[in-house]
């Protein structure tokens, strides 16, 4: 062994003991930062809701909505201002994602959401139905979302739904658009 290696071997020290106080400080600091970011996001959600407070109360599902034309179970992905797929509406629980049971009758569209506020879209308020790929915070393959445009107060709203059986969504688009054309024709 050379003298340089012997000196180097003699000078090696054992690894330092972990500084637990510094590690705990970093963990507490990181947790405080995450909690602060979560609080800011919650405040932003509340602020958006207060900006949209002029939106009228949602109509409830009638006791006797009529004969069922179509029914679907799936997911409700939220509502946005019509034509602006990133402008989420959070007032009256419209921003809350949930399971959904859609029922289309002659009187309108019943949206029943377990764990969230149910609402009803009268047939006269329906404006358009289409298949699209995204709505605020949810992007799927082309044609993966059923988007229903409807009027509420003086605002047009797009609501996004995803069926448990996506193949049936095109039937919903055709039926809804036929109902809308029929309603518009009789209103003239």
Notes on the structure:
By secondary structure, the protein is an alpha+beta fold. It has two domains: 20-51; 68-187, PH-domain like (Roll). It is built from three helices and ten strands, in the order ααββββββββββα. It has helices spanning 3-11, 20-51, 169-187, and strands at 68-81, 88-89, 98-105, 108-112, 119-122, 126-132, 134-135, 138-139, 145-152, 155-163. The strands form two sheets. Strands 1, 2, 3, 4, 5, 6, 9 and 10 form an eight-stranded antiparallel beta sheet that branches. A hairpin with a 6-residue loop joins β4 and β5 (119-122). It is elongated and about 105 Å long. The termini are far apart.
Total number of distinct structural domains: 2
Tell how many strands the DSSP assignment holds.
Answer: 10
Average residue pLDDT:
85
Give helix % range.
25-40%
The CATH homologous superfamily of the largest domain corresponds to Pleckstrin-homology domain (PH domain)/Phosphotyrosine-binding domain (PTB)
Sheet/helix structural class? alpha+beta
Give the distance, in angstroms, between the N- and C-terminal Cα atoms: 103 Å
Question: What fold name goes in the CATH topology slot of the largest domain?
Answer: PH-domain like
